[in-house]
Each structure stands twice: as structure tokens, then as C-alpha cells.
Amino acid sequence: MTFTSNAPPCTFGAPRPIYPEPAYTVDPGPSGKDYFRGILAAVCVKRGVSPADVIGPSRQQYVVRARHEVIWTMRQARKANGKRRFSDSMIAQWVNRERSVMVTAAKSHENWMGIRK
Fold this sequence. Notes:
By secondary structure, this protein is an all-alpha fold. Helix content is 50%, strand content 0%.
């Protein structure tokens, strides 16, 4: 007696990957710290202040405005899905401030620019 089956033969090929590759890839851009340094340098050149002043404890108005511009610009960075790229805690760590300062700084900068009333 012979046994026949319509099922395909069992083959053991290469194992499937545990984690499949994503359907698409998004360029993450520069790392967070490099992005921050680029923004910091651009704002410092534009405003005529040194990066050490922006990160430091100075409360002079021209330094504070430059610092708030850096914070506002960092908060505007978005991922491909529209979410913010950097958290307030991350930005605060780079600027040597508390996290709660980030919201106030961004609102102040918007007031100075005339975006917010």
C-alpha cells in the first residue's frame, strides 16, 4: 500500500527573522546633541552672544532672548509622524535649566516674535 498526499513537501529553509524589517525607513537626522549644538551655534551667531553665555546663568536680556530662541527652536523640531523630537527634560538638560522653564521660555519667545498675544 502506498500513501500519497496533496500537501506540499516539508522543507526546512533558512529561519525567518524574529523581528521583521520595517516597511519603510525614516532618516533620523543628526543625533540630539549634534542638532542642539548646530541650533545653539546658529542662534549665537545671529544674536552675537557666546554659547557659554546662553548655557550659563546670565540673566541679561540679550542673553535670555537668545536662550529662549534656542529653546523655542528645539521645541519646534518634529519627527516624521508630527510628534516633538525632543522632550522638555532633554532640552532642559542641554540648556542647564529645569524642565518647567521650557514652556515659559517658548511662550516668552512667541510673545517677542508676535506669534502669541
